[in-house]
Amino acid sequence: MERRKASEFPQALLQLFDRYVHGEISRRDFFDGAQKFAVGGLTAAALFEMLKPNYAWAIQMPPDDQRIKAEWATVPSPRGNGSIKGYLVRPADAGKLPGVLVAHENRGLNPYIQDVARRLALANFMAFAPDALTSLGGYPGDDEKGLQLFNQLDRAKMLEDFLAAAEWLKARPDCTGKIAAIGFCYGGGVANQLAVRMDSNLAAAVPFYGAQPDAAETARIKAAVLAHYGERDTRITSGWPAFDAALNAAHVTHAGYVYRGANHGFHNDTTPRYDEAAAKLAWQRTLDWLNKYLR
């Protein structure tokens, strides 16, 4: 299917799809709401197909790229769901490296997030991308089913799973002991919460359009925080000024960027919400931040 741009769709339709993505409305509700945008021979079902992820577009780094080494690892998580499986990627023939935990969206460890882990390995980091759906069989290969499984899990236990994964990554003998957390959507909120929970054990956090902690939680953060937001993602971006103020009050090293005209999910290159200019700029800023605070 041809890749479409966000500008080709009414913003109200993109916002309706965003509500579906975050579980606020069902697929049927989306179809009902999308009917008024189904013009020119298009159907609501066709619009849905255009807007949903096409993971073939996310493969910037093939899994068998000879420059990297990828494997699966399972981490014990006694305070969470028992264990969590994840995708571990390093540069081929690398020595000790700083680590980056990659937290996925609310569908599980999909191919896009796996590719992000490989991109980090190419940038000379050891990346670990856990799958919060491990206890339910893992990411099912279908986003619709992934959301259903995700909604069955206890959020507090999921966070404990990610915390266990981060501590495991930090303690690995091939890790320098400096780690960061990067996350997208739900995972952006995870990155923020790991910054709250891990204190000085987390060197940096890079939330992409993630839910922000409250002021009391923010006061506990020791990591250097780099936050990315889309201008049109008002649901999440509206929380940035208060988060920024709380970070300032707590004297936390941080920076935040709101990308003009960008929607929620602008870094995810599998949907029309992808904004190439914003995504590339945010990614370069992310690599610069990680190199500054992890090397």
How does this structure look, described?
- The protein has 295 residues and is α/β, with parallel strands linked by helices.
- The chain folds into two domains: 47 residues, no CATH class; 230 residues, Alpha/Beta hydrolase fold, catalytic domain (Rossmann fold).
- It contains eleven helices and eight strands.
- Strands 1-2-4-3-5-6-7-8 form an eight-stranded mixed beta sheet, with helices on both faces.
- Strand 6, helix 8 and strand 7 form a beta-alpha-beta unit.
- Helix 1 runs antiparallel to helix 2, helix 2 packs across helix 3 and helix 6 packs across helix 7.
- The radius of gyration is 18 Å and the shape is globular.
- The protein starts with 10 loop residues before the first helix and ends with a helix.
- 48% of the residues are buried.
The helix/strand series, from N terminus to C terminus, equals HHHEEEHEHHEHEHEHHEH
DSSP strand (E) fraction?
15-25%
Mean pLDDT reading: 95
Q: Whole-Å distance between the termini? A: 41 Å
User: What is the CATH architecture assignment of the largest domain?
Assistant: 3-Layer(aba) Sandwich
